[in-house]
Amino acid sequence: MTDLIINGKRHSVDVESDTPLLWALRDHLKLHGTKYGCGIEQCGACTVHVNGRAVRSCGISVGEVAGSARWTCRSAATARQA
User: Fold this and answer.
1) What is the spatial distance between Cα 58 and Cα 35, in angstroms, rounded to a whole number?
2) 3-state class of 55 per DSSP?
3) How many domains does the chain divide into?
């Protein structure tokens, strides 16, 4: 089990540490706001914020971000609207 903090909430996912963050978000946590585009870090459809930095979630593993504070782009947009 790996703990991820997403949109201010702690989530545990049962995936290998080399699983792309994109698939943990979409397939295991059912957070479909992060989209699959190209799968090679080029298009930006899968961009999320990791500790204030925009990263392509298709190219970063769950193990690389475990325990870090994270927010999806959708939650950042919602916060700006409030």
Assistant:
1) 9
2) strand
3) 1
For position 21, which CATH number holds? 3.10.20.30
The CA distance from 25 to 31, in Å, is 5
Distance of CA 31 to the CA centre of its chain: 9
Q: Which residue has the tokens 């049962």?
A: 14
Question: Which residue in the block uniquely carries the two structure tokens 């475990």?
Answer: 66
Query: If residue 79 lies in a helix (H) or strand (E), which one and from where to where?
Result: helix 73-81
The predicted-structure confidence for 3-37, as pLDDT tens digits, reads as follows: 998 888 889 999 999 999 999 999 999 988 889 99
Domain encompassing residue 73:
2-81
Residue scoring higher pLDDT (40 or 74): 40
Neighbouring-strand partners of residue 69 = 5
Task: Flag whether pLDDT at 66 surpasses 50.
Answer: yes
